[in-house]
Amino acid sequence: DLPAEIKSKLAWVYQQEIEANRYPDGSHEELKGAIAQYVEESANLTDYLTTANISVGNGSDELIRSLLIATCLGGEGSILVATPTFSMYGILAKTLGIPVVTVSRQEEDFSLNLEVAQQAIDTINKPPIRVVFVVHPNSPTANALTSKELEWLRSLPENILVVVDEAYFEFSQTSVVGELAQRSNWIVLRTFSKAFRLAAHRVGYAIANPDLIRVLEKVRLPYNLPSFSQIAAQVALQQRQLLLPLVTETIEERKRVWSVLKENSKLRVWQSQANFLYLRPKNTTTDNHENILAEITSKLKAQGTLIRHTGGGLRITIGTPEENNRTLQRLEKII
User: By three-state DSSP, how is residue 192 classified?
Assistant: First the structure.
């Protein structure tokens, strides 16, 4: 959670500065400026980004939905995703009546099956693929994009929008932001829900060239981000020297938990560049695999530990050392 001193500051701001009967700043200009500065600083860029490169959403979900509306609505296009991945791309597309093309991943490292992906791009034309969604690093499998995947994305024609979701950037420290000046059809999504600890405030943002951002700004709803959420994000950026050191501690805990799980002969666990680990039980049959995953998830939940059963595996978020120890002990008993 947020440190007590930041919560106190936010409480003071709400009492002293926010007029609840006034609409929020619909332009997000102050927050956009702070985001642009942070992105430049974290990518070692100089005078590269302005507020014209940033759009702010009610979580990344709103930005994803706006991108879909702007590109594929009314039979104009379909989207390409590689599963397993973040489920909201497909869910939001389907609610808008947009076709979803799925391709497989290599099980060894969960990289995209590029040959199948390229074949889909080349052959599907009713409606054509207009958007490719990738997560860097991926959720739930926690692997970053490989050099081959990046080269493939660079080779896509400009009439296909490439969306690189960097929700876990602070944990991986790998980003494609530095390429945006040369990639007019690329857009990067990020969030304050992870490393900045503001999941309750629902603040996401997009980084792209100004032409793409202008389209997003046309599509988004007015006053889409409450005043308190805007201020919380600004305070989090101002206090990032206090908040972000916890990322290092989380990474150390991730390594510790991974080393323990790796020793369990009944589990297969993959390396991670995010704040969670992905694992699957070994020696299961096709018939009982999902049932075993559901049973593990249910038994952990009954004991007070929530994990995600998704994509044919289990995603375990790294918490405090005490939470992680409880999870490991409970999982060991269940396995």
Answer: coil
